[in-house]
Amino acid sequence: MQPLDGHSVVTRDLVKRFGDFVAVDRVSLAVSKGEIFGFLGPNGAGKSTTIRILCGLLAPTSGSAEVHGYDVSREPEQVKHAIGYMSQKFSLYDDLTVEENIDFFSGIYGVAKERREERKSYALRMAGLESESKTMTRLLAGGWKQRLALGCAILHEPPVLFLDEPTSGVDPIARRLFWDLIYEMAEGGTTVFVSTHYMDEAEYCHRLALMYKGRIVALGTPAELRASHFEGSTMDDVFIASIEAEEEGER
User: Fold this and answer.
1) What is the Cβ-side half-sphere exposure of residue 172, based on CA atoms within 13 angstroms?
2) Distance CA 23, CA 46 (A)
């Protein structure tokens, strides 16, 4: 199924409650094909919960969400087949080799048998691990594990990719190289939805939503968000000002 309105991800007044706690509070957004869309905010802002809903892993309390034309509440299995997902824990098996991890995820994602060698070669090449295919994954440095996890997440060539704080815990150079890969995928038409708490990574997104206490407190391109504040403002300034305005509105 293809999205009818040209958007890969759409949410309308999305809410998720855990008892009395509101983790996601009336989130509405629309993300286009090939867009790199960022969720920026501190830990506990609701970024990961929103992504888990969009991946079909959590049911929303109310509101609606569609991913690649599928309703996350009514068609969670179809959603899971249409997406790639990578968390900050990288979702790899340390007791398997690089190659064995790729083979395992090829099976999990249902990659056709006749295409598995081709997709394995692609993942190894993209991750820069062609000479390390027999290496135990636990022996890889964080940046290499990260690239391998990304390769595993896109073995089935999903049209939508969710990255939940994927650069957490890796060095700045590895983070920059990882973003180069994200740009390559977006240029090829993949929609990339990424959450982060690194303010500098906001500049790498086409658009982003600033999240705080489960709500979107600002939405736009990095340039638009900076321009909405004082001249010369940084994303740190924008985020702090947005939080302060939100707190003031609650008083």
Assistant:
1) 2
2) 5
What sections of 13-115 are H helices per DSSP? Answer: 47-54, 76-82, 98-108
- For residue 41, give Cα distances in angstroms to 113, 194, 216, 251: 40, 11, 10, 21
Place of tokens 């509070």: 25
Tokens of 94: 């340390």
Positive or negative: CA dihedral 100, 106, 112, 118: negative
pTM of the model: 0.90
Q: Are strands 191-196 and 36-40 parallel, antiparallel or unpaired?
A: parallel
The one-digit pLDDT tens for each residue of the chain (251 residues) are: 444 457 999 999 999 999 999 999 999 999 999 999 999 988 889 999 999 999 999 999 999 999 999 999 999 999 999 999 998 776 799 999 999 999 999 999 999 999 999 999 999 998 999 999 999 999 999 889 989 999 999 999 999 999 998 888 788 888 888 899 999 999 999 999 999 888 888 889 999 999 999 999 999 999 999 888 767 778 888 888 888 888 777 65
What distances in angstroms separate CA 42 from CA 28, 47, 66, 239, one per listed residue? 19, 9, 25, 10
From start to end of 88-183, where are the E strands?
160-164
> Rounded CA gap, 65 and 53, in Å?
8
Nearest 5°: the CA angle 166, 196, 67 is 80
Cα(14)–Cα(63) distance, rounded to whole angstroms?
A: 4
User: Crossing angle for the helix pair 116-127 and 98-108, nearest 10 degrees?
Assistant: 130
Distance separating alpha carbons of residues 34 and 7, to the nearest angstrom: 10
